[in-house]
Amino acid sequence: VQLQAFGGGLVQAGGSLRLSCAASGIIFGINAMGWYRQAPGKQRELVAAMTTRGSTNYGDSVKGRFTISRDIPKNTVYLQMNSLKPEDTAVYYCNIGATGGRIYWGQGTQVTVSS
Predict the structure, then answer these.
(1) Which residues of 6-35 are buried (b: 16+ CB within 10 A; e: fewer)?
(2) Which of 7, 35, 82, 92 shows a CA-CA span of 20 to 30 A to 57?
């Protein structure tokens, strides 16, 4: 199973982007789907995550600006990013966690926000 992320790009500050991530195959026992990001010289950090029951968790820096959603039958997770800031510039990775400690990572998509 591979995760393919789409939707990154270059946007001006204040703009919006929508990321999507789809799994190439069927993943059984999904616990949560989410997005992480890593900026140059920084550690990878949680952006947003959603459990299969719909509970969400957001990083403090994106609360109120980003929204995570998912389509479980399609094994697809989305990230709507509004009011983007230059500090949101990073490579964004999608992530799926499943039972048995299985974790799947996407290849990353670059988001660049210009000031």
Answers:
(1) ebbeebeeeeebebbbbbeeebeebbbbbb
(2) 7
